[in-house]
Specification:
The complex is a heterodimer of chains A (about 150) and B (about 450). Chain A is mostly beta strands. Chain A contains one helix and eleven strands. Chain A has a five-stranded antiparallel sheet, covered by helices on one side. By secondary structure, chain B is an alpha+beta fold. Chain B has three domains: about 100 residues, Rossmann fold, CATH 3.40.50.20; about 70 residues, Dna Ligase, domain 1, CATH 3.30.1490; about 240 residues, D-amino Acid Aminotransferase, Chain A, domain 1, CATH 3.30.470. The chains are: A mainly beta (about 150), B alpha+beta (about 450).
Chain lengths: ~150, ~450
């Protein structure tokens, strides 16, 4: 499904702003892309892409409100197959700390379970999907504040 | 048929979407991340992103496309043209998942997709073919054939298409090098470096026959199209129906052969048999087992909807009319508006379309997916629109096309619009029946005029 009708929140906004950049980056040969504007900071680093590949973005809060040291980069775990999303048991909840390579759920496609795993550990800040929801390529599933 | 997934993009995805909606069938679009804002996504009832921009990871991503069909409850897939349209394996996978592939059987796709096999099948069905070899195993074999058939000869890739792996050889000393370069080009493009040789017929016409066949043995021969105006890369630029200046003897013989061929392949659904025409003779080149880009010119002169017929045939219904019900009305011409620069060897262009003003009025049909502000991604073919002009006769069709092209403004990328106006007003094109050598000749003539002007 096309990703739409999601609640408008700060992370949703980041996702909207960042996606075109991620696309351009993904289609390029670059391994690192850094944007440093007054109200917007972003760094994308290419790594090998496992299922549920991790894309890393830095939050866009004005610098004077949140000191740079308190900023946590946001990893968005996105689906890279078209299928049906299922959460893992025990169910992950927003606010909990999740560790590297923990399976948060899987996308079932053509009878195959494609696990969605945490890249870098942190605080589970967002769950963008619900149980049994059809998801398409690139659809955000989870947001993780790395190191939080 | 409850719901159709359209496994394509651009104008053909919209064309299929229209046919489905007219028949009351809901549609599912698939798209790449580069096509998120495309019209085919907006017009469909549902849409799934199946991968990033490059088509190998999106429009050719069979698992994601099949998964989208299963999740959405689509029980049929229309492949359009290009991408997976002539992929026998894909048609098989659809069948394995209980999804109707709107096209011929995997067996027919496979038989016609391998050009050497296709030729053998046609020879067995008494369809005339150009003298040629099987797959060339050695340079000696190639030399022997070229010697006996006489130069020039044409090297072709058995998996080929779009001019890839194709070389004309005019003299014995060029043969070995051309053979090697054609083979490596084919290997790179198709993963299959096998090539064969044919006698090169100088300045033939590209004449193709549109066929429809249902699962009950019904066959319709929907006349011919002349697609001789081709770029140096052998890609078609202007197509018309009927073919100008063909004798009735030529036509009846051509249609009879096409009918034999369809029966021989036990073909079901829409297909096109391509021939080289030279004088009163024609030779089978290949069969395309899909709907073609230039199908609208046939639709216009027969007042038939080929895509709807495809859907009906795939449902197991018989053809909606008989051969005796078909009457040719007037003449139709199609021009492909591509985002490319004719002055720079038709180099494709990507960018954003800042202005899009498309023509209309009597006898003009425009099949397109573009709109003002739309992006032209770099990943896909450069076709922006097809303009089809229909008139009471060829003269009126040409006049309408020229008028329509002059009404057309597309800015932001270079297009073939001005170039096509030059062709449509060129006396040699207006005379009709110029062969595939026409466009290269036209380009050489223009280059000479420019060189003279520069002096």
């Amino acid at each position: 499904m096309q990703s739409e009708d999601r609640e408008i929140d700060v992370h949703g906004e980041i996702e909207r702003l960042v996606r075109p950049l991620l696309q351009a980056f993904d289609d390029s040969d670059l391994t690192r892309l850094s944007v440093d504007e007054e109200e917007f900071g972003l760094e994308i680093v290419r790594r090998s892409r496992p299922i549920g590949a991790v894309e890393r973005a830095v939050a866009a809060e004005p610098a004077q409100q949140i000191p740079a040291a308190a900023r946590h980069p946001m990893d968005v775990l996105a689906a890279d197959v078209v299928g049906i999303f299922h959460g893992s048991r025990p169910e992950a909840v927003v606010g909990q700390t999740v560790t590297e390579s923990r399976e948060l759920g899987y996308v079932e496609a053509l009878g195959i379970r494609n696990p969605v795993r945490v890249g870098r550990g942190g605080r589970l800040a967002e769950i963008f999907v619900s149980e049994g929801e059809p998801v398409d390529y690139g659809q955000p599933l989870f947001g993780i504040e790395v190191g939080a | 048929m409850k719901k159709v997934l359209i496994a394509n993009r651009g104008e053909i995805a919209l064309r299929v979407n229209r046919a489905c909606h007219e028949l009351g069938i809901p549609t599912v679009a698939v798209f790449s991340e580069a096509d998120r804002e495309s019209l085919h996504v907006k017009r469909a009832d549902e849409a799934f992103c199946v991968g990033p921009g490059p088509s190998a990871r999106s429009y050719l991503n069979i698992p994601n496309i099949i998964s989208a069909a299963l999740i959405s409850g689509a029980d049929a897939i229309h492949p359009g043209y290009g991408f997976l349209a002539e992929n026998a394996r894909f048609a098989e996978i659809c069948r394995d998942h209980g999804i109707t592939f709107i096209g011929p059987s995997p067996e027919a796709i496979r038989a016609m997709g391998d050009k050497a096999t296709a030729k053998r099948v046609m020879v067995d069905a008494h369809v005339p073919v150009t003298p040629g070899t099987g797959i060339v195993e050695s340079i000696e074999e190639a030399r022997a054939f070229a010697q006996s058939a006489g130069y020039p000869v044409l090297i072709k890739a058995t998996a080929g298409g779009g001019g890839k792996g194709m070389r004309a050889v005019h003299a014995p000393e060029e043969l070995e090098q051309s053979l090697n370069s054609a083979s490596s080009e084919a290997q790179a493009a198709f993963g299959d470096g096998r090539v064969y040789l044919e006698k090169l017929i100088l300045n033939p016409r590209h004449i193709e026959v549109q066929v429809l066949a249902d699962a009950h043995g019904g066959i319709l021969i929907l006349g011919e199209r002349d697609c001789s105006v081709q770029k140096p890369s052998h890609q078609k630029l202007i197509e018309e129906a009927p073919g100008p200046h063909l004798s009735s003897a030529f036509r009846s013989s051509l249609y009879e052969v096409a009918r034999q061929a369809v029966k021989a392949v036990r073909y079901v659904n829409a297909g096109t048999l391509e021939f080289l025409g030279e004088g009163e003779h024609f030779y089978f080149m290949e069969m395309n087992t899909r709907i073609q880009v230039e199908h609208p010119v046939t639709e216009e002169i027969f007042d038939v909807d080929l895509v709807k017929e495809q859907l009906r045939i795939a449902c197991g219904e018989p053809l909606s009319r008989g051969q005796q019900d078909l009457r040719v009305r007037g003449h139709a011409i199609e021009v492909r508006i591509n985002a490319e620069d004719p002055a720079n060897n038709f180099a494709p262009a990507a960018g954003t379309l800042t202005t899009v003003q498309l023509p209309g009025g009597p006898g003009i049909r425009v099949d397109t997916h573009v709109y003002q502000g739309a992006a032209v991604p770099p990943y896909y073919d450069s076709m922006l629109a097809k303009i089809i002009a229909h008139g009471a006769d060829r003269e009126e069709a040409i006049a309408r096309m020229v008028r329509a092209l002059r009404e057309t403004t597309i800015e932001g990328v270079k297009t073939t619009v001005p170039f096509c106006i030059e062709i449509l007003t060129d006396p040699e094109f207006i005379a009709g029946g110029a062969g595939i050598g026409y466009l290269p000749r036209f380009l050489a003539r223009e280059a000479r005029v420019e060189a003279a002007a520069a002096r």
